[in-house]
């Protein structure tokens, strides 16, 4: 069950205004997470040294590059921040296109809403591979569009980043074309795996052809073009709606039924 009277839960599903406010907040958070990465802050210097070391073969450049990477206090934390940035971006786009970003309750769906369950033994949620429209959920639960009563089919956990990166039907929602997608999704999957590795961007990793400056330049350009610019334009085009949504959420009473 998902409470719609709390911003940390399901307030984004109350109406268009609350949806826009929550989505814009998520987009703003994306930028803060990404640009706060020490790896990104030192990227121009890293790219310059990388070119000198591997293209111009300038003596001492590789050593300087290694020293630069070693000076980054927590590259693993940077990997986490980058993955969180894109996770929030994907969910903001899903939300703005009227898809739910919260996980569905498999037991409730099996018992009362079989249209959201798939497989011969009804063991899998359709949501695992297919984005679900909030309108379909409200219709299934016979809910008024403006009602703020809890949604039975959803819980307070959001969709796992793994599905957002791997499932074609999800990726199609926020796709920027095959060329960009073929680079972005494998790169983010690599960073996701790297989150738990203490060898991220160490000497052995760099020497074996790991994630160098070029990959992070791609991510930086992507964030600047598709996240920052999009977020700024979205706010300009929906400023009134966003401010209304913020006030609506601030006025919600979590105790009211």
Structure characterization notes:
A hairpin with a 5-residue loop joins strand 2 (117-118) and strand 3. This protein is mainly α. The relative contact order is 0.18. It has one domain (11-250). Helix content is 59%, strand content 5%. The model is unreliable at 199-209 (pLDDT under 50).
Helix share of residues? Answer: 55-70%
Which class do the helix and strand fractions yield?
A: mainly alpha
How many domains? Answer: 1
Q: Mean pLDDT, as a whole number? A: 86
Sheet with the most strands, sense and barrel status: 2 strands, antiparallel
Shape: elongated
Low-confidence stretches: 199-209
> Could you spell the SSE succession in H and E letters?
HHHHHEHEEHEHHHHH
Instruction: Output the number of helix runs.
Output: 12
In whole angstroms, the N-to-C terminal distance is 14 Å
Strand order of the largest sheet: 1-4
Bin the strand percentage: under 5%
DSSP, total strands: 4
Radius of gyration: 21 Å
């Amino acid at each position: 069950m998902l409470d719609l009277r709390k911003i940390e839960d399901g307030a984004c599903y109350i109406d268009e205004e609350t949806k826009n406010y929550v989505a814009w907040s998520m987009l703003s958070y994306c930028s803060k997470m990404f640009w706060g990465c020490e790896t990104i802050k030192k990227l121009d210097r890293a790219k310059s040294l990388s070119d000198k070391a591997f293209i111009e073969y300038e003596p001492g450049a590789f050593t300087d590059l290694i020293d630069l990477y070693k000076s980054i206090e927590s590259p693993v934390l940077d990997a986490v921040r980058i993955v969180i940035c894109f996770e929030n971006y994907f969910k903001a786009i899903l939300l703005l296109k009227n898809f739910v970003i919260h996980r569905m309750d498999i037991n409730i769906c099996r018992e009362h809403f079989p249209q959201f369950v798939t497989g011969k033994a009804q063991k899998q949620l359709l949501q695992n591979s297919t984005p679900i429209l909030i309108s379909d959920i409200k219709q299934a639960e016979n809910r008024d569009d403006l009602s703020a009563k809890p949604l039975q089919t959803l819980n307070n956990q959001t969709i796992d980043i793994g599905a957002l990166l791997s499932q074609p039907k999800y990726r199609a929602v926020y796709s920027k074309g095959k060329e960009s997608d073929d680079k972005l999704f494998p790169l983010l999957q690599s960073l996701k795996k790297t989150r738990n590795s203490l060898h991220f961007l160490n000497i052995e990793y760099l020497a074996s052809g790991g994630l160098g400056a070029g990959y992070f330049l791609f991510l930086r350009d992507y964030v600047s073009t598709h996240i920052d610019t999009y977020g700024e334009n979205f706010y300009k085009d929906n400023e009134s709606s966003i401010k209304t949504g913020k006030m609506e959420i601030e006025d919600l009473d979590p105790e009211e039924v």
